[in-house]
Amino acid sequence: MTATATSHRSAVESGRAGFGQVLRAEWTKFRTVRGWLIATAVAVLIMVALGWLTGVGSHSSYDNGPGTPTVTGHPYVPLGPDGEAVNDRFSLVHRSLAGDGSITARLTSLTGAQVLLNHDDPSAPSETEPAPVQPWAKAGLIVKENTKQGSAYAAIMVTGEHGVRMQYNFTGDKAGPTGTVSAGSPRWLRLTRTGDTLTGYASPDGTNWTTVGTVRLAGLPSTVQAGLFAASPVVENVSQHLGGGGRVTGGKSQLTAGFDNLTTAGGFAGGDWTGTAVGSDDAQGLDQRGGFQQDGDTMSVSGSGDIAPDVAGSGDAMEQTLAGVFGTLTVMVVLGVLFITGEYRRGMIRTSLAASPRRGRVLAAKALVIGAVTFVVSLVATAVTVPLAEHILRGNGNFVYPVTGLTQLRVIVGTAALLAVASVLALAVGTIMRRSAGAVATVIVLIVLPYILAIAGVLPPGPSQWLLRITPAAGFAIQQSLPAYPQLSRAFTPAFGFYPLAPWAGFAVLCGWAALALAAAGYLLRRRDV
Amino acid sequence: MRSALHAEWTKLRTVPGPGALLVAAVALTVALGTVVAATLTCPAQGCAANLDAAKTSLSGVQLGQAVIAVLAVLAVGGEYSTGMIRTTLTAMPRRATVLAAKAVTVTGLVLVAGAVAALGSVLAGRLILPGNGLTPEHGYPPLSLTDGPTLRAAGGSVLYLALIGLLSLSVATIVRDSAAAIGLVLGVLYLFPIVLHVISDPDWQRHLQQIAPSNAGLAIQTTVGVPDLPIGPWAGLGVLAAWAAGALLVGGLLLRLRDT
């Protein structure tokens, strides 16, 4: 006779250890520690306080020349057709064009010069001395809505070092044939208007034409200004200082362009060509900043300035109000690490893992809780800080670069997402190291130190950009609100807030780090004893 | 005090953590200094006017200070997390003496490690920089500790690290939690340089540079353009010393007044 023994089976439903249950347990752990709730409040306060400090710590004032009173505010910054800040100062030689038409000219020479500032009397006519043509100095044919700064335009041009370009509405830029212009190898240009469509052509000989670009300027009025133009941007020399960012020095440059074989067709008004210094103050006519000389169908146009987007130097970018992100980051990293190391320290981890033995689930629940809490808390902080600090900045006379609502949303929400991912990274590193101090220091150093080394001028621009490509600090790219336009000869370096990676690409690098760390943490949590 | 010192020394000596952290501090400081020096290039026509060879070589301190901070925080925070602090204070009820002994022991260790790190960094700069165009012909003699400003930069970096250690130890005594303490210390050290970068008002910038522990303290590393600094090298180190002394005072008071 044999007896069969049945093993005991618990009557409790196995569904108790479902993910929802684990998640709820972790959320309870977080919300019932009073110190952590205080810390999240502090994290919000730091962001808001530093945003406020950025606002009150930045003042802008200007005067209209010696002897005039200094007023709070900033010099006028024109806005382009799409609302972005632009540079729009150049020499324009134009006639009215009603309806369709076409203008053709041969560009035979480009001559550069440096404008010398007269420090004793800034209002005196400036003198020039010969200098190389600036890489983005430009001259050619243009059709512009009117002679006001920031109005819509399309232009076909030859540049100093970037060949023929078709540019329109400040941000648009299409490349054409390469090479520069000389008497031996002139360049024919043609700009045709049909309704609101403009087409730019280039030709080496005036017979064989290639289309450089066709653009549609929506809402272009029937009567526009069309003609020739010349512009040469400010020369920039950048020097960097340890701890204090960079300094830009430079001077005005000038470009003189020689045209011949100038012909027009279509609805051009008769009469003489008019010279206008677009963007110049009333006191300064075209003669002072350049000018034009006409002899039959031959014309020479000189100009300084630029027709391009303005992304630095006139004011503050909106993300500068979010300097407090580093303070908030520090707090959230401490919380992320403590969320797991606190359990190791108290031995609580044994209870947690005994209650829900599927360790991966526990880690996932913790990551979800700390990530979500950080995201919500940070979103409150950024959503309050940006409008508040922008308001104070404007009140102090600063110009804040306008950006589209979508970009604004990306910076505000992206910063919160960045902090959430950083807190998950902290949780993962805490799980790997099981010690608070070491883990906190590791995560802060991983995220913040590369950023400091890159922006504070410790490293040269090349290595700085590499740091911001491969370290978790790449994630800060999501805060960059102004794009780095290739058609500007500016120092688009980290020290000036320009990241080597696109916003979401940089954020993806940070996410990659967090994912790797979380995978390693999950593996170690399963393999190790507690 | 002798026995207190001996006790603290035994605590630090007999666990592997502090030793490993000291080695890491030296290695990371020299490594970052070497990398920064190696990336620095000087075109043939001459370097930028504000290039500071000594400061460049010693820039690894930016990283080394984080490790030193961890070491110093753990010297106190470790006792709180394990409850060892109760045993310590039972054995040595004079709490000020305990804190002083900890401060002396940690500072001594950091001074030794900092000296090794600074020497290694200067040596690395001396070997690397001439190859990058910082040659005597361009006005950059090889880095040498016999040169007054370079000696000040190197020696000052050692003192800077020691003061960071003292500050971290005091903060840990105040907050009694390693994670919070290290977050606070690194937050203060790294946040100021970033805020400085954003604020555009020159007066505010100057004042912040004068009071920020990391910026003012690291003024000691400057050997080029010293008169243009917002705060002099020794005065800057004094600011950091004031931060450390203030924190130590508060930490000592709280240690006396609070239950453990």
From TrEMBL, chain A:
Task: Please give the InterPro entries that the UniProt record associates with this protein.
Answer: ConA-like_dom_sf
Q: Where is the signal peptide?
A: none
- Ranges annotated as spanning the membrane: 33-53, 322-342, 363-389, 409-430, 437-459, 504-525
Q: What's a single GO CC term here?
A: plasma membrane
Q: What is this protein called?
A: ABC-type transport system involved in multi-copper enzyme maturation, permease component
Q: Name the keywords, alphabetized.
A: Membrane, Transmembrane, Transmembrane helix
Q: Which Pfam families match?
A: ABC2_membrane_2
UniProtKB/TrEMBL annotation, chain B:
Q: Which UniProt keywords apply?
A: Membrane, Transmembrane, Transmembrane helix
Membrane in keyword set: yes
Coiled-coil ranges per the record? Answer: none
Membrane-crossing residues? 61-82, 103-129, 149-172, 179-199, 234-255
Q: What name goes with this protein?
A: ABC transporter permease
Instruction: Name the source organism.
Output: Rugosimonospora africana
